[in-house]
């Protein structure tokens, strides 16, 4: 059997989804997925978006100065 370190195989993904379904139930699973997706997006924006936030602040300052 081959070792697959760091790679999620389809079998492992299905087993993880079944376990999550049993633990959280079908009602909470969509909310859990939504929260997970939101957390991932916030993490990505925090790691890549620092420059963008600073640019937005500078633009707001420029707009308020010109008014």
Automatic annotation (TrEMBL):
The gene is tatA. Signal peptide: none annotated. Its main location: membrane. InterPro entries: TatA/B/E, TatA/E. Residues 54-67 have a biased composition (Basic and acidic residues). One of its GO terms (cellular component) is TAT protein transport complex. It holds the Pfam family TatA_B_E. Forms a complex with TatC. It is a single-pass membrane protein. It comes from the Bacteria. The keyword Flavoprotein does not apply. It is found in: Cell membrane. Keywords: Cell membrane, Membrane, Protein transport, Translocation, Transmembrane, Transmembrane helix, Transport. This is Sec-independent protein translocase protein TatA. One of its GO terms (molecular function) is protein transmembrane transporter activity. Part of the twin-arginine translocation (Tat) system that transports large folded proteins containing a characteristic twin-arginine motif in their signal peptide across membranes. TatA could form the protein-conducting channel of the Tat system. Belongs to the TatA/E family. PANTHER family: SEC-INDEPENDENT PROTEIN TRANSLOCASE PROTEIN TATA. The chain crosses the membrane at residues 6-24. One of its GO terms (biological process) is protein transport by the Tat complex. HAMAP family: TatA_E (MF_00236). Residues 43-67 are annotated as: Disordered.
